Amino acid sequence: MAQAAATAAAIEHKAYARIGLLGNPSDVYYGNTISLALGNFFASVKLKPSEHLVIRPHPFHDLVHFNSLDHLVNRLENEGYYGGVRLLMAICKVFSNYCNNNKIDLHQGNFTLSYDTNIPRQTGLSGSSAIVCAALSCLLDFYKVRHLIKVEVRPSLVLSAEKELGIVAGLQDRVAQVFGGLVFMDFSKEHMDKLGYGIYVPMDIKLLPPLHLVYAENPSDSGKVHSTVRQRWLDGDEFIRSSMNEVANLAVEGRKALLAKDYKTLAALMNRNFDLRRSMFGDDVIGALNIEMVEVARQAGAASKFTGSGGAVVVFCPDGPSQVELLEDACNKAGFVIQPVEVIPSCLNDIDLKTLSST
């Protein structure tokens, strides 16, 4: 048995970073979003059949051997306490429980899981969920149950694994990473209550204009103040409720603008998205560095907003290459990294497509 496991083929999957183009953070407030899979960065997970079930620590992200006390402290200050091992363990638990609860039989084989990632930390590009998403894909193939777990359900499994670890987030990141490509998402309460997930509509990535990603390599001073927006929304605060509804509607209008290739409107919607977020959350929560990234882009005449909760912004230069040059110069002077956005097309294969609900 051990020899058979050692010679069995390894399974490897990637999951990409994501950009929230419009509508975030309304996904956790029964809103709408448009998100895309970002090919510039990804996490990869490898599953190899083995005699025992092993979760292998990453040599850098799960470091437990240090040269000195200073090395340990510097590592924790720059990278935090947590690597990917806990994420892999959590998705294994959530996957197993889901299959048990839904009477999906799993064979008794064991495996070794390992991972790697190049997604920058603290940039709002969904690095943790990418690891979980890639691991879920490996488990689906190892146990040969891809056809039994609907594509729409998988983002909820990824989110459940993160919630096991106290990570607070919404579904949109996980939807973008499970689906790939460009996706419009409707998280209305009616759908969420009835289905347990939203309505997810893939869009043609060719509808997108050229976009750029701007981020800080050391985003340590970004938004450390706790936000009260969630509680105010739950308390029925009229300003928060109406502002969040407007944010959600930006994705609806953005979908229309993309379908019409009305990029002037798209730019205005992107800017409005950030302005609404700023008015709700306040500058102390958003953080000075995040505000500077947005303003550097706007000073070049570009549209900009967060890719997620902060740490990076997505930028659109409606005036074309000459404006991109201005943006690059401004980012270089400010010390920000800038690169063209590479959009990954749909990740779904034929088996996945057969599990999709007809909408």
UniProtKB/TrEMBL annotation:
What are the transmembrane regions?
none
Q: Where does the GHMP kinase N-terminal domain lie?
A: 100-181
Keyword annotations for this protein, in alphabetical order, are: ATP-binding, Carbohydrate metabolism, Cobalt, Kinase, Magnesium, Manganese, Metal-binding, Nucleotide-binding, Transferase
Family matches, as InterPro entries: GHMP_kinase_C_dom (IPR013750), GHMP_kinase_C_sf (IPR036554), GHMP_kinase_N_dom (IPR006204), Glucuronokinase-like (IPR053034), Ribosomal_Su5_D2-typ_SF (IPR020568)
A molecular function (GO) held by this record is: metal ion binding
Q: Where is the GHMP kinase C-terminal domain?
A: 256-330
Cofactor dependency: Mg(2+); Co(2+); Mn(2+)
Task: Name the reaction it catalyses.
Answer: D-glucuronate + ATP = 1-phospho-alpha-D-glucuronate + ADP + H(+)
Q: What is its EC number?
A: 2.7.1.43
Task: Identify the enzyme class.
Answer: transferase
- What function is annotated for this protein? Sugar-1-kinase with a strict substrate specificity for D-glucuronic acid and ATP. Involved in the biosynthesis of UDP-glucuronic acid (UDP-GlcA), providing nucleotide sugars for cell-wall polymers. May be also involved in a salvage pathway for glucuronic acid.
Q: Name the family the entry cites.
A: Belongs to the GHMP kinase family.
Q: What is this protein called?
A: glucuronokinase
List the taxonomic lineage: Eukaryota, Viridiplantae, Streptophyta, Embryophyta, Tracheophyta
